[in-house]
């Protein structure tokens, strides 16, 4: 199954006043506001692999769905000033539901004893804090979990073979064991049946999409799709209406 924690930079009407300043609007439009290209890539993989997708388009500058409820970065400087009741309401409405939906989808997929691969689709900025990131794609995982380690080694080899010059790294530019949704799910799900991997794609690969929005071009989508399909032991195919109903984007 697939998830996308940073699919958009949408601000619900209740909180628009928090982002009225020019500084806040600039932040929303930047990599801080969302993972450009990630949602479209996740939707492409979902369609072609017949895989359920759970995604949120609410900006992480309001509340960060890929952080635990008590993490210091749960709220940004734009939402941290809310009073305690408002913060609780924000988390209850725009944080908890996404995480619960992903966990419920994983548990449902585990029915009958199946092993589940959960891929969280993300993108990262080519440069941060003056440091140039030296990878086109990366896979984040917990190296202490043998199934995740084995899968990521194989996926890395396949991705490198798709486009020879690509630099495909593991646990870069972030660590797979850092606080995140996959880290939480590893605590509550068995290691032999749950594999939680975060796919990170460099935003330097983005191009203008059909409607002018930033999107990853066909070679990127094809390489990720073909390698992931091969890992799953099959070929990509378009899914039907029944599979489409399993996806949720909020």
Secondary structure elements and their pairing?
Layout: E1 2-4, H1 22-29, H2 38-49, E2 53-55, H3 84-94, H4 96-109, E3 116-124, E4 127-128, E5 131-132, E6 137-140, H5 146-162, E7 168-170, H6 181-188, E8 194-202, E9 207-208, E10 214-215, H7 218-231, H8 241-244, E11 248-249
Parallel strand pairs: 1-2, 1-3, 2-11, 3-8, 6-7
Antiparallel strand pairs: 4-5, 6-8, 9-10
Summarize the entry for a quick read.
This protein is an alpha/beta fold and 250 residues long. 35% of the residues lie in helices and 16% in strands.
Second rung of CATH, namely the architecture: 3-Layer(aba) Sandwich
Fraction in helix = 25-40%
Main structural class: alpha/beta
The CATH class is identified as Alpha Beta
Question: Spans of 5+ residues with little confidence (pLDDT < 50)?
Answer: 239-245
Main β sheet profile: 7 strands, mixed
Total number of helices: 8
| Strand coverage percent | 15-25%
> How many strands?
11
Evaluate the radius of gyration: 18 Å
Tell me the distance between the termini. 17 Å
CATH topology: Aminopeptidase
Q: Which outline best applies?
A: globular
- Identify the strand order in the major beta sheet: 7-6-8-3-1-2-11
- Give, in order, the helices and strands: EHHEHHEEEEHEHEEEHHE
- Report the CATH superfamily: Zn-dependent exopeptidases
What is the residue-averaged pLDDT? 93
How many separate structural domains? 1
């Amino acid at each position: 199954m697939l998830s996308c924690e940073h699919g958009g930079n949408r601000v619900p009407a209740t909180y628009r006043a928090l982002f009225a300043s020019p500084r806040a609007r600039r932040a929303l439009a930047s990599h801080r506001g969302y993972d450009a290209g990630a949602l479209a890539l996740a939707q492409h993989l979902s369609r072609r692999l017949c895989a359920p997708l759970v995604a949120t388009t609410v900006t992480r500058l309001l509340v960060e769905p890929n952080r635990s409820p008590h993490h210091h970065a749960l709220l940004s400087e734009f939402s941290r000033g809310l009073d305690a009741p408002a913060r609780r309401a924000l988390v209850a409405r725009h944080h908890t539901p996404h995480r619960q939906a992903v966990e419920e989808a994983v548990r449902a997929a585990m029915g009958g004893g199946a092993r589940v691969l959960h891929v969280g689709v993300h993108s990262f900025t080519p440069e941060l804090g003056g440091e140039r990131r030296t990878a086109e794609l990366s896979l984040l995982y917990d190296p202490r979990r043998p199934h995740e380690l084995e899968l990521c080694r194989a996926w890395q080899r396949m991705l490198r073979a798709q486009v020879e010059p690509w630099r495909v790294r593991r646990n870069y530019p972030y660590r797979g064991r850092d606080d995140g949704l996959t880290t939480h799910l590893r605590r509550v799900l068995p290691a032999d049946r749950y594999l939680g991997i975060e796919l990170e794609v460099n935003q330097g690969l983005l191009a203008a999409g059909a409607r002018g929005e930033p999107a990853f071009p066909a070679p990127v989508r094809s390489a990720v799709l073909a390698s992931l399909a091969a890992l799953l032991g099959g070929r990509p195919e378009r899914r039907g209406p029944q599979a489409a109903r399993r996806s949720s984007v909020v």
